[in-house]
Design brief:
Layout (H helix, E strand, L loop, with lengths): L1 H10 L3 H30 L1 E8 L2 E8 L3 H19 L7 H6 L8 H16 L9 H6 L12 H9 L11 H15 L5 E5 L2 E5 L8 E6 L7 E7 L3 E6 L4 E4 L2 E4 L2 E2 L4 E2 L4 E8 L2 H14 L1 H10 L4 E6 L3 E4 L7 E3 L5 E3 L4
Parallel strand pairs: 14-16
Antiparallel strand pairs: 1-2, 2-3, 3-4, 4-7, 5-6, 6-15, 7-12, 8-9, 10-11, 12-13, 13-14
Helix pairs in contact: 3-8, 8-9, 9-10
The structure holds adenosine monophosphate and magnesium ion.
Length: 340
């Protein structure tokens, strides 16, 4: 439109006027080009921060002029959350709570506890943040793993526990906090990777979807697939993430609250895609515990998430909402798009 009116103007002028006008237009267009050039350069430049928190490496990447300051605040918040929510740091509120000080949780940790308990109820107890004594019995908190005797597990299962372990939800919650902070600061394009849990703000600076790689549960050398997403959390739980082997048996860190033992549901990996990181993180753990049939029933009963469920037989079950966004990269798996 602007170009059209400029051309009309040129043709209605005399030769000398045309010369001056063309010169002015040229200067104006060059200035505009320069300005928009600068704008897009500063607007699309990536600012990246690496952090080690919550026992994992985190990479935060944001674009635009607001990115640098916003990421600085985000990094501070992450280390604050790390100290508050850790089950192993003797200075954390959670540690104090689990060791008898029932007033130790501040507002944020107390609110997270309530949200996680509500989500736990929704999953029929498959997500159970009071599971801390069991996690401890298996040695996952001390990094000295052991297989607890059945009597010890039975005694712990019989007790009503008033403890918290945010391991299954903390990273998703932290992702919500960080993406919220970035949005508030005016960042419209960012991707954060909290130890394989990915959450994004908007889309890529060029407007296209982010491509999120999904970890291959049976090989760290390749990816299972990739997902095209914008504005969402993509969170995976898998037994491969943390485990140990004793006498030829491998034990992983996702426990079935009913047995007190590592969940043996037939699923080896669960990825959840949702708007909320807390929901996605909690459900990735819960659906891993539930197994394929109950996980599918949970999907049918709710409309706030999509999932990729990988069985030990190498089948990849994809919920309908991900049909167009998931690409299988490891051909040794069989993609099943409609769940049984
Ligand atoms: P995630 O990697 O999100 O699946 O969370 C696993 C972590 O959550 C473990 O390392 C434990 O700290 C804790 N956890 C294990 N099993 C459960 C469970 N069934 N419910 C809640 N938290 C659990
Ligand atoms: Mg989880």
């Amino acid at each position: 439109m602007m170009l059209l009116s400029v051309l009309k103007e040129i043709y209605s002028q005399s030769e000398t006027e045309k010369g001056h006008f063309m010169k002015r237009c040229l200067i104006l267009f060059s200035l505009l080009a320069l300005l928009t050039g600068c704008q897009s350069q500063t607007g699309t430049q990536a600012v990246q921060r690496d952090v080690f928190a919550m026992d994992t490496y985190m990479t935060l990447t944001a674009y635009g002029t607001k990115a640098d300051a916003a990421l600085g605040t985000a990094v501070e918040r992450l280390s604050e959350l790390d100290t508050t929510l850790s089950a192993t740091d003797p200075n954390s509120q959670v540690y104090a709570y689990n060791h008898g000080d029932k007033q130790a949780l501040g507002d944020e940790a107390a609110a997270l506890k309530e949200q996680a308990l509500t989500l736990g109820a929704r999953t029929g107890g498959a997500l159970d943040i009071t599971i801390y004594p069991l996690v401890q019995a298996w040695g996952f908190t001390a990094d000295v793993q052991r297989v607890p005797p059945q009597e010890e597990l039975d005694a712990l299962l019989a007790e009503e526990q008033d403890t918290v372990d945010f391991g299954a939800v903390a990273k998703g919650y932290a992702g919500d906090v960080v993406t919220g902070l970035l949005r508030e600061a005016g960042v419209t394009s960012a991707i954060i990777n909290l130890g394989g849990n990915v959450q994004c703000v908007g889309s890529k600076p060029d407007g296209s979807d982010w491509k999120v790689a999904i970890q291959n549960p049976t090989s760290s050398a390749s990816y299972l697939g990739s997902l095209a997403v914008s504005n969402q959390a993509v969170i995976t739980s898998g037994g491969y993430e943390r485990n140990f082997e004793i006498d030829g048996v491998r034990y992983h860190h996702i426990l079935d609250p009913q047995t007190g033992c590592p969940a043996d549901s037939g699923l080896i990996s669960v990825t959840i895609v949702a708007n909320s990181g807390l929901l996605a993180d909690g459900l990735s753990t819960a659906l891993f515990v539930m197994g394929l049939d109950d996980a599918w029933a949970h999907y049918e009963a709710h409309d706030d998430f999509e999932a990729i469920l990988v069985t030990q037989e190498g089948e990849v079950y994809l919920t309908p909402g991900l049909r167009d966004s998931f690409t299988l990269l490891d051909e040794s798996y069989t993609l099943i798009e409609v769940l049984p």
